[in-house]
Write a structure and sequence with these properties.
heterodimer; A: 430 residues; two-stranded antiparallel sheet; 2% strand; disordered N terminus; B: 523 residues; alpha+beta; 6-stranded mixed sheet; 5-stranded mixed sheet; 30% helix; 31% strand
């Protein structure tokens, strides 16, 4: 249900596998297979976006596809538990607006407040239902319904009145109503919405009627639909996702053509060694057609070349720099372009520690260990940073970790010696 | 209940209306005129003059008389529009502290909001005198194409005038509201507004007491004054040819000629031929020279037909933006004095296949609509609802310098839209969100409303972080932009206080300052 932020994405949505799913029937890429294997009915959509080898966008699209095919079912948080417990989907007690929210002291009549609360409860209904029109309704009916609801719920209705917490509610309601009108009055988006409605079982008739008892005649006639299991939250999420990436088909086609041209131009530029120009064209190509994988890999290649060249230049500059601060700055910038470059990282750690920026030094050292966990010398470097900061216990713990990998590593040995010396000369942090 | 006045703050003329006894009344000033020139001057003795008084002395005091300042409001000093204004206007324009344009009158520098504020104050005074009670609330109209900065500057002007601006609404919408009275059927209306300085075309729909703007288009730098200027240039050219004297640098002559041109233009709406007669326009060694030129309607139409054609191009675009056929328009409404020109009426009639609506005075219809909206907002009889739209697209700059639109123009407000963006560098820890308004594809060609930084993004390879950028416009048109990193949940937002050209302190200072000026009554 729309939190005060409304919009898409901020809601916790929990995908779970459809009960009658047979994974053998699916054709999946390895990435999608991995993603599917992570779906356990507890991990949220958002979390799924950040685990595994797919980008959040790809995860979104894959989940959306799963959902459309009925592979998974997506619940809003809280509803997941309800669904697991296999309780009846409607919970009138929970959904009925509480009396406490109605405030006779406000500039809105109490019965109207009640209506606003009730209508808001059902905001996540499919667009047709929200507007109270049949699925077969024509543009005129849709517009009429939109105007009718606007007259009731547009914030201007209550201009300069004390609306209390209803102000935000009205804005939320109107935004959603306007969105429904916008999407249903455009034949392209409407067709899409109807397709997704048709591809899924319709909700049981009782569910939403119970949300707002006695208000159905105000909202309009209930659309006729077959009985079946309705999955709360699913339809809305799908629509939200669609809206998020919605571009009119004509524009889409034009953009694709343009993207292809830019891609060709980029390849020519790259071939001739003009990498920056190539990267710029490739970026544009992706901006025009973000769904083409070829562009992305092409861009990654070119970017790697550009970044490599830039990093080399920065490293050289850093080598020439006489001031340590300047060298550190240049090296850190080089890291932006080549984040996993071990030699650069090592130099940055040393320079940071010398500049007594221990936190930063350790952060970079941790990165080193992440990249090459089995190199003892990196642990010696971490130990050195702790020691320079004067924290002996941590220093010796880090050293031990390194020694366990390779006790005879020269860096480990040298660091052990230095630690020993600093212990015998108190306060002598090198 | 306090009354709300509706003010049409025009480029050349302004008009104020109020709902009195359930009927809209256009309030005449003390001189009996229902519109007042949007002019401000400081006389040589230091007296401040507004409206007709300012216009009457404009010839002899050209350098210290400000007109058409609406063309400058909210614009940057280095904008192309300003360059044009610098060439055209006889008064001095200088660059302000915020790269805005300021006007020097009699040695004192005024911001454009202040000039508009002085004019609004005059309209407020006219209304108070008529109603016999103080007025504080107003609805003010602006051209549909005004961006947020220009709207904000107009709001500031209202504040300076001591008004609380309940709403800024589009002029064509106001015109439709004026005609919307008593309508119940579903109707589509085209509003063709050719005023003194701006041209707007809007397609609206009225149904069941709701007004919806389907599309708007126009040009903020095209209007009746362009017609006047064409006549002036034509006459200057003729005079140079016949008398051998170039009057283009003679301020006094130009101003006289401008007034005469405007009058001739109006005459030619009803007559076939008229004369421009300006005795003693110049002096040279052989004595005084007089200017005497005959102009026919045909000549005038030849001089300005390209301007009218240009307006029709916008009309075509707007109708197709609305997804309509010209024949589907039920009513055509004309706004602005310039629409009295027969050529305009002919072309409009030809395009829509039906003659324009008459019934409400084209000079007053906008103020009437503003008064109606004011009334609707504060009264209990809320039988009318204006669904307002965003005039220009809103979005952010992408890293490659492009403009990513989040809210398309003509979207009904209040609205919220969001989109997910990502980083372009590995371990990028911050992104700068630049909020822009406009229709250009390249970011820097659009108008920047504000910027902020979303920082502390956890390190991740490029393309991994999901940054959700949301635009939120409330019913008052206030834009709020927020960016949220979906993995860390970190959020940054700004309310786009459109950097008008004045700070809040400056405005408060001007409110006090201007309240002290006792403006002389209209004679």
């Amino acid at each position: 249900m729309g939190s005060s932020k409304g919009g898409s994405g901020e809601q916790e949505r929990i995908p779970r596998l459809a009960p009658d799913l047979d994974p053998e029937d699916l054709e999946l890429t390895p990435g999608e297979g991995f993603l599917l294997s992570r779906i356990d009915g507890a991990t949220s959509w958002k979390t799924l976006c950040h685990i595994g080898g797919l980008s959040p966008l790809e995860v979104d699209r894959a989940l959306e596809r799963f959902e459309a095919k009925g592979v998974i079912v997506v619940d809003a948080k809280g509803q997941a538990r309800a669904a697991k417990a296999a309780t009846a989907p409607a919970e009138p007690k929970k959904l009925a607006p509480s009396k406490a929210q109605v405030d006779a002291g406000l500039g809105i009549p109490v019965d109207l407040q009640q209506r606003i609360l009730e209508f808001e409860q059902g905001l996540d209904r499919p667009y047709h239902e929200l507007l109270g029109v049949e699925r077969s309704a024509d543009v005129k009916d849709i517009k009429r319904a939109y105007f009718k609801l606007s007259r009731e719920y547009h914030p201007d209705r209550y201009f300069r009145r004390n609306t209390g917490h209803f102000g935000a509610r009205l804005e939320r309601i109107f935004r959603r109503v306007a969105e429904a009108y916008e999407l249903l009055s455009d034949p392209t988006t409407r067709a899409e919405i109807e397709r997704s409605l048709a591809s899924m079982p319709a909700p049981p008739g009782g569910e939403y009627r119970s949300v707002a008892p006695g208000t159905t005649e105000r909202v309009g006639p209930e659309p006729a639909r077959p009985r079946g299991q309705r999955v709360p939250g699913r339809m809305e999420n799908l629509e939200r996702l669609r809206n998020r990436f919605k571009i009119p088909p004509k524009m889409l086609a034009e953009r694709r053509v343009r993207a292809r041209q830019l891609y060709q131009a980029a390849r020519v530029s790259a071939h001739e060694g003009r990498y920056l120009e190539a990267a710029a064209s490739m970026r544009l190509a992706i901006a025009f057609d973000p769904w083409e994988k070829e562009f992305k890999s092409g861009f990654a290649d070119i970017q790697a070349q550009v970044h490599g060249a830039r990093a080399e230049a920065l490293l050289k500059e850093a080598g020439d720099a006489t001031a340590q601060g300047e060298a550190l700055r240049l090296l850190e910038e080089a890291l932006n372009y080549r984040p996993c470059h071990v030699e650069t990282l090592k130099r940055v750690v040393t320079l940071c520690a010398d500049a007594r920026e221990f936190e930063k030094a350790r952060e970079y050292a941790e990165q080193l260990i992440e990249i090459e966990p089995e190199v003892a010398a990196h642990h010696a470097l971490v130990a050195r940073v702790w020691r320079q900061q004067g924290l002996r216990a941590q220093a010796s713990a880090a050293l031990e970790r390194g020694a366990r990998i390779d006790a005879r590593d020269p860096e480990i040995k040298a660091e052990r010696l230095r630690q020993h010396r600093s212990r015998t000369r108190p306060g002598g942090a090198a | 209940m306090s009354r709300v006045i509706g003010i049409d703050l025009g480029t050349t003329n302004s008009c104020v209306a109020v709902i009195d006894g359930g009927k809209p009344v256009v309030i005449p000033n003390t001189g009996g005129y229902k519109t007042s020139p949007s002019m401000f001057a400081i006389a040589p003795d230091g007296k401040r003059l507004v409206g007709h008084l300012a216009k009457r002395q404009a010839i002899t005091n050209a350098r210290n008389t400000v007109y058409a300042s609406k063309r400058l409001i909210g614009r940057r000093f280095d904008s192309p529009e300003l360059k044009r204004a610098l060439e055209l206007f006889p008064y001095e324009i200088v660059e302000g502290p915020n790269s805005d344009a300021r006007i020097v009158v009699s040695g004192k520098t005024f911001s454009c909001s202040e000039i508009s504020g002085i004019i609004l104050r005059e309209m407020k005074r006219v209304a108070e005198e008529y109603l016999g009670e103080p007025v504080s609330d107003a609805v003010i109209t602006v051209p549909a194409y005004f961006n947020d900065t220009q709207r904000q500057c107009t709001k500031d002007a209202g504040k300076i005038a001591g008004l609380e601006v309940l709403r800024i609404i589009n002029e064509p919408t106001a015109a439709a509201l004026a005609y919307g009275l008593g309508h119940n059927r579903e109707e589509k209306i085209a509003v063709y507004d050719l005023g003194g300085g701006t041209f707007d075309i809007s397609i609206l729909e009225l149904a069941e007491g709701v007004v919806e703007v389907l599309a708007t288009a126009g040009n903020t730098f095209l209007g009746g004054e362009d017609f006047d200027r064409r006549i002036v240039e034509h006459v200057l050219e003729l005079f140079k040819k016949t008398e051998g004297i170039d009057l283009s640098d003679d301020l006094m002559a130009r101003q006289r000629l401008k007034d005469a041109a405007e009058k001739a233009k109006c005459d030619l709406s009803t007559l076939q031929t008229t004369e421009i007669n300006l005795p003693f326009i110049a002096n040279d060694h052989s004595g005084a020279r007089h200017l005497n030129v005959e102009i026919t309607r045909e000549t005038l139409e030849g001089l300005v037909s390209d301007i009218v054609e240009r307006t029709m191009k916008s009309v075509e675009q707007c109708v197709s933006d609305a997804g309509l056929d010209p024949r589907a328009i039920d009513h055509v409404v004309l706004v602005g004095g310039q629409t009295r020109m027969p050529l305009v009426q002919q072309l409009v009639t030809k395009f829509f296949g039906k003659p324009p609506h008459r019934g409400v005075n084209p000079d007053e219809v906008v103020a009437v609509g503003a008064a109606i909206q004011g009334r609707v907002l504060v009264s209990d009889e809320r039988d009318l609802l204006l669904l307002d739209v965003t005039p220009l697209s809103l979005g952010i700059a992408t890293f490659d310098g492009h403009f990513a639109t989040l809210i398309h123009r003509n979207t009904t407000v209040p609205v919220r839209k969001s989109h997910v963006f990502t980083t372009t560098r590995d371990n990028q820890s911050a992104v700068k969100i630049r909020v822009l308004q406009g229709e250009a594809e390249r970011a820097d060609e659009n108008h920047m409303l504000g910027e902020f930084v979303l920082s502390d993004i956890p390190p991740a390879p490029k393309g991994q972080p999901a940054i959700e950028v949301s635009f939120d416009i409330d019913a008052n048109g206030i834009v709020n932009v927020s960016a949220r990193d979906q993995s860390s949940g970190r959020e940054q937002s700004i309310t786009v206080r459109t950097t008008g050209t004045l700070s809040e302190e400056e405005i408060q200072q001007l409110v006090r300052e201007n309240a002290e000026y006792e403006l002389p009554d209209e004679a």
